[in-house]
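Before surveying the methods themselves, let us examine one representative protein, written as a sequence plus integers encoding its fold.
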Amino acid sequence: MTAPRGGRWSLPVKVTLLAALVQLAVGLAIAALTGVGDDGRVVAALAAILAVPVAVVYAITRFLVGRLTAPVIAAYQRLAAGDFSAELPSATAGRDFLGLREGFRAMAEALERTLAEVRGADRERRRLFADLAHELATPTTTLMGIAAAVQSGAGDQARLLALLDRECARLERLIGDVRELATLEDPALRLEFEACDVGALVTAAVDGLRVGGPALAAVRVTAPALTAEVDPARVEQIVANLVTNAARHAGGAAVEVAARRDGDHLTLTVDDAGPGVPEDRLAELGRRLLRVERARDRASGGHGLGLSIVRAIVARHGGVISFARSRLGGLGVVVRLPLVAATRGPPPAAPG
């Protein structure tokens, strides 16, 4: 960073020099008009008289600059130290300094917001690494146990191989979802928007999931023809993640998917009749690696990134996602996307 450079002369000196030049010009003019230029004593007296205003100008300017600069510097130093309540001195309270005071306050508020965002991002980063380490610890410990059992020849080999396959699949899903989430949050990623029938997309996505078992085979879909400008692959990903998540937690209870037009938006809802989510935890849904009921999610193979991926895709479409109590009694998820692509640039900020 380039160091600030000061002028050769201070402001009081510059103002005084300007005043002296003006006084000199006035004195020479008076001497020329009165014809006293040849009388040295008169010239000397005139110079002495004119020197008084110059001295007064210097004293006043130095006083005013001192009254302003020292408190202003102190206010900036307080702001640099993190005191965002710092204000410019009362000497700048006049109308002439209104823009300066407003600019200083706006800068302080912007710095405070930026610092809060940086601190929040740092907390989220540390929490994410801690949660990721926790997620990796369980399959890693299990794999080490399997390796030890295989080496010692203990245990049922078929059961150990099945357990090995399950834990490797869990690691593969976790790594894949972390990579997917990182890709979606990369500002350089561009989605492939195109006008398509979202109703057909939703129906096809659910049909593809029905082969996954009885719980998914019972999913009901209401999705009439509806054209919207979206990334079709990403919309299918939204449907797949939400429906799979609902079926997993519904435990065989009803799951309903619906798509409809709502003004200039497409609304996609996924409702289930499962146990639902406590009201005080709804706002946390979509946070990376969140498990509302950790033991059940681990048993079913979930690791808390599915909803985070959905939230990121929705954000890239310029849409919003919300969670509430379902009309079926479980969890209800509502996704609203613009019918016309709202943005093709960097995504809006998505909560951790």
